[in-house]
Design a protein that fits this description.
With 348 residues, the protein is mainly α. It is 63% helix and 1% strand.
Length: 348
């Protein structure tokens, strides 16, 4: 029977990985102050989140093998999961700078912490570099991962990072309007917001388990994971406005940042000419009073209730997709069922 990891179990692996990264840094004869700075970076930015992405890897390995993992298997699977969390941390540190965000995971954003500032840009690169240091250290001799070692970073990490450098309308593989309002406001989305949930949850787990799945198996998986990623992003858009800052760990900024969120797109669909004028005059402005005007408009349009109806409908659609997955060649429906259960009706 497969096992389901807990956040405590998953986080227990991190100190060993942190130590490995610091040991690697010591080979460059860095001064004590720089090592202390790196240690602080590694103890603040990858930790404190829900770790849904990372925990999905050991969960997937256990499901694929059909049994609980040994201690060594769990460590290796969780290590692969922490590589995805490092990529997530890399994105969040840089994204918070771009958005001028205030808080992240219940504390000031990294660039806002004492003495950090724009050094955070360099620190984000160090987080990304940690992925490849860990990969080389722990998976050099792993049979399937050894064969895939050169392809793994390219397929699982940089290819997911590169779209962040593309125009926003190309980031998700289909055209999106660059300008949704005909007035002075242009809505936009930073594409990395949803990239991490498009990372196939079974792929690193399957490689670790020794299952080199044929490419054709990716077809049903892609059908399932892309809608999961979209659903996750829409949840984020909803929580940015309707979630409590003390609960979600950050202060929502989508309205002030002019984000092309699900909420504003719904508002544009529903708006009367008068309501659209309100959006054009108040959306995307660094002004607390104008932000409150938009929030009230969302309430008047009953967008909270509209989202709740959407969530029920989308969850049903996702279960239908999951039930259509062909398990005959190794891909397990339970991987996606567990994934969906982690995010369904999440509140942070």
């Amino acid at each position: 029977m497969a096992q389901k990891t807990t956040l405590k179990e998953f986080e227990s692996v991190w100190p060993k990985l942190e130590e490995a990264l610091l040991d690697h840094a010591k080979t460059y004869k860095l001064p004590a102050a720089e090592l202390a700075w790196l240690k602080r970076n590694l103890e603040v930015n990858p930790l404190g989140g829900k770790c849904n992405r990372g925990m999905s890897v050991p969960d997937s390995v256990s499901i694929i093998l059909g049994r609980p993992l040994t201690e060594e298997e769990y460590f290796k699977a969780a290590t692969l999961g922490w590589m995805t969390e490092l990529l997530q941390a890399f994105f969040l540190v840089s994204d918070d700078i771009m958005d001028s965000s205030i808080t992240r995971r219940g504390q000031p954003c990294w660039y806002r912490q004492e003495g950090v500032g724009m050094i955070a840009i360099n620190d984000s690169f160090l987080l990304e570099a940690g992925i490849y240091i860990i990969l080389k250290k722990y998976f050099r001799d792993h049979p399937p991962l050894h064969r895939a070692r050169r392809a793994l970073p390219r397929e699982l990490f940089p290819d997911r990072a590169r779209p962040a450098l593309r125009p926003a309308h190309r980031a998700r593989g289909r055209r999106q309007p660059r300008q949704l309002l005909h007035g002075k406001v242009q809505l936009h989305r930073h594409p990395q917001d949803c990239l991490l949930f498009l990372l196939p949850p079974h792929r690193p787990g399957a490689l670790h388990a020794g299952h080199c799945l044929p490419p054709r198996i990716c077809r049903p998986q892609r059908t399932s994971s892309s809608p999961l990623g979209e659903y996750f992003q829409i949840q984020d858009d909803y929580l940015d406005n309707f979630g409590l800052p003390e609960h979600i760990g950050k202060i929502g900024t989508d309205i002030k940042d002019n984000k092309c969120s699900w909420l504003v797109n719904q508002a544009l669909q529903l708006a009367t000419p008068e309501q659209r004028k309100i959006l054009e005059e108040n959306y995307g402005q660094k002004d607390d009073a104008k932000e409150q005007v938009v929030k009230k408009l969302y309430d008047d349009m009953k967008l909270k209730e509209r989202y709740q109806a959407f969530e029920e409908k989308r969850a049903g659609e996702l279960m239908e997709l999951i039930n259509k997955i062909d398990e005959s060649q190794g891909l397990k429906k339970q991987v996606f069922e567990v994934f969906l259960s982690k995010i369904y009706k999440r509140s942070k």
